[in-house]
Write a structure and sequence with these properties.
The chain has 18 helices and 15 strands. By secondary structure, the chain is α/β, with parallel strands linked by helices. Strand 1, helix 1 and strand 2 form a beta-alpha-beta unit.
């Protein structure tokens, strides 16, 4: 028999699933697993907006989409499988931060496969260069070091932006695919003490929200980011940083692993730090925790066989293989593995980052809210009045939460 697996396009996923499927075939020769890779926006259409596609047996699902899919009854509960045939180490080897978003009451609808909180990446060789440090001190009157605040981030980006050399200070993944722009806005908002929703209404059209939107758009308007970043998603932004195209970037910690790959132009020269905080007493270091889980759509032709494949992928040796292939492991035991930490130093800080992590609102309406935020960010970057964009988006989100349509 054949199982069809749907996955978003990402080279790390292609490598890890290829090896994991080969290992599964050795112990389950009667089951052929056929992976299908599509861009993330197409996956969302296939399984969330228009779907689910009836031919998918196993779906690697973003936690962004889970509340809507669970509420619509589109996913098989894995609770009985986890109770009677769990993967080794379940549930304790997975932190609570990687188990909550796929659970509703006593039902569990997915097992985490790939994670990686957002983190600041910076060119350690540039920031530690004595001539750069002297020039920065003369210009800004302070030490050149990994930015603690967003104001510091802008200064570092200014310092390393040199149009006459074709260099830009920061790399940002700003492709409007419903993920990158929204995540970036939320990080800017939360790190300034703002919230998306409070008391059942939109609350991001606040002073923190205005500062968040202004700051993000100003990075582009002031030329601190290469304009081509408007066409880069997080994967391509990670590749651009690994190619040496900027001094600093915030992105998923998994792209620190990309930067350490043998093909990277910056291998051995990248440092990591927490996401900068906003200025003032409300400022805080936060990161975003959104991850990918293995699920079984209710249309799967053979849920039992699908579970056998998911259980295989959740084994310790398969999680370690995910790390080695360029994905991001999800088990504590993999994070703490001395050899993995030696090969991939970013794993040394993963557990600490999870203690700062925030998640997207776990609401069935969230995909609609996400679409509004994505449009708000795209229009603001296109030059539409920022205050008007913020206010209109807040009105639309409040209407979604109230169960009515804005015309």
């Amino acid at each position: 028999m054949a199982l069809r697996l749907l996955v978003r396009e990402f080279e790390g996923f292609r490598r890890s699933f290829a090896d994991q499927i080969a290992a599964f075939a050795a112990s389950h020769p009667e089951i052929e697993v056929i992976p299908e890779f599509y861009p993330i926006e197409q996956v969302e259409r296939m399984m969330v907006t228009d779907g689910p596609e009836p031919w998918i047996d196993v779906f690697l699902c973003s936690t962004d989409w889970l509340p809507q899919l669970i509420a619509a009854g589109r996913l098989v509960s894995l609770s009985r499988y986890l109770a009677h045939d769990p993967p080794p180490g379940w549930p304790d080897d997975w932190p609570l931060s990687l188990r909550g978003l796929q659970s509703q009451g006593d039902a569990v609808y997915g097992v985490a496969y790939h994670d990686g909180p957002e983190v600041l990446l910076y060119r350690r060789d540039w920031l530690e260069d004595s001539r750069e440090r002297q020039a920065f001190a003369r210009r800004f009157g302070q030490e050149l070091k990994p930015p603690e605040t967003w104001a510091d981030f802008a200064q570092v980006a200014h310092h390393f932006t040199r149009p006459n050399e074709g260099r830009f200070g920061a790399v940002v993944g700003a492709f409007p695919d419903g993920h990158n722009l929204v995540y970036d806005f939320l990080l800017q908002l939360w790190s300034r003490g703002g919230e998306v929703i409070q008391q059942g209404r939109a609350s991001f059209h606040s002073d923190a929200g205005r500062k968040a939107l202004d700051y993000y758009c100003d990075l582009f308007d002031e030329g601190l980011v290469n304009p081509t970043c408007r066409g880069l998603d997080s994967v391509r932004a990670g590749a651009a940083f690994a190619a040496g195209e900027g001094a600093i970037m915030w992105n998923w910690i998994g792209f620190a692993l990309t930067a350490e790959a043998f093909s990277s132009a910056v291998r051995g020269r990248v440092g990591l730090a927490p996401i900068p905080r906003g200025e003032g007493s409300a400022g805080r270091h936060v990161t975003l925790n959104t991850y990918w889980v293995l699920t079984i759509p209710v249309t799967s032709a053979d849920p039992d066989a699908a579970w056998q494949f998911i259980r295989h992928l959740a084994r310790p040796e398969m999680d370690r293989l995910t790390a080695l292939a360029g994905g991001h492991a999800v088990r504590r035991s993999t994070w703490r593995d001395a050899d993995i930490q030696r090969r991939f130093p970013p794993y040394r800080m993963v557990e600490a980052l999870h203690r700062q992590a925030r998640t997207l609102p776990a609401l069935p309406q969230y995909p609609a809210i996400n679409a509004v935020l994505n449009t708000m960010m795209r229009r603001a970057l296109d030059g539409v009045g920022r205050e008007g964009c913020l206010q209109q988006a807040a009105e639309e989100v409040s209407a979604i939460l109230a169960g009515r349509s804005e015309t």
